[in-house]
Amino acid sequence: MLAKHLQMLRERAGRSFAQAADRLGVHHTTIRRMEQGLGRPPRPPDLRELLSFYGADAGEVSALVELAERASGRNWWDEYSLSESMADCVMLEGGATRIRAYAPWEVPALLQTEDYARALGPDPDPDRWLDLLKRRQAVLDDDAGPLLWAVIDEPVLHWQVGSPGIMADQLTHLLEMAARPRVDLRVVPFDAGPSPAARVGTCSVYRLRLRELTDIVCVQQLDGLNFVAKPSAVTHYTAVLDQTVGKATRRGKQTRLLLERIQDHWRAA
Predict the structure, then answer these.
(1) Cβ pair 261, 157 in contact under 8 A
(2) How far apart (Å, rounded) are the C-alpha atoms in residues 140 and 183?
(3) pLDDT of residue 193
(4) CB of 153 within 8 A of CB of 104?
(5) Average pLDDT of 203-207?
(6) Contact (CB, 8 A) for 43 and 18
(7) 109, 125, 133, 169: which one has the fewest Cβ atoms less than 10 Å from its Cβ?
(8) Pairing, β 96-103 against β 147-153
(9) pLDDT on residue 122
């Protein structure tokens, strides 16, 4: 997160790697590594100097210095030895006030039951993965946690993962989560046609607690997670998600009735 914002601010200011490096008295590769998220975050004095050079306002400076201090400390997910991108994802979930999620292939992770997640089998160490998943999902039980806005394509709920019983339980869980005031769950039905966001794939947009920071988009790709922070790109992703929700069921009764119909199908299977 810090790296992408440093890159964005440098480009916004029209500064080169060499100019930024000269300002700090370091080699240009040091600035490049900062923007790749490699190594430890810059020390607060160096970060403040760099942000001043980029023309960041006081709010941006305060938010990014706080972010650097958090990134330098230890976090509960460190014990899982996650990839950098997965650690970023978990950090974003815990630091967001709102998560907008779209899922064309599987139920979003924050809404998966343990049996459904185990049946997906995405990890060679499923017990470790499931323990991590439960701790990630705990953010939805926190009154200070994020609001979750999720849209699922209907075929996802008809594809059998594990057994019919697992699918029926997963639908029960979705109905329970959809009843929560801090969860807005929608489904794009078959008769609405392809979702505009289907071209994007599985993605989430995070609204951060540090209001001075832009929204972050996380896109799930075959070889891992990709994060997008450039404002124009974030705006494009958000617009596509808005178009998709326009095709989805309305929150509340319409979503509940569709979920109950699919749940009945799996109970009878």
Answers:
(1) no
(2) 8
(3) 93
(4) yes
(5) 96
(6) no
(7) 125
(8) parallel
(9) 67
- Confidence (pLDDT) at 229: 85
For 159, counting Cβ atoms within 10 Å of its Cβ (0-12 exposed, 13-18 middle, 19+ buried), the class is exposed
Contacts of 26 (CB under 8 A, 6+ apart): none
Distance CA 245, CA 10 (A): 34
| Arithmetic mean of pLDDT, 176-185 | 97
264 Rama sector, left if φ>0, alpha if ψ -120 to 50, beta otherwise: alpha
| Three-class secondary structure of residue 221 per DSSP | strand
CB 233 within 8 A of CB 128: no
Separation CA 55–CA 78 (nearest Å): 33
Listed residue (12, 33, 128, 39) closest to 79, CA to CA:
128
CB contact at 8 A, 97 and 209: yes
* Residue tagged 């430890």 (tokens): 40
Give the model confidence (pLDDT) of 181-201 as tens digits. Answer: 999 999 999 999 999 999 999
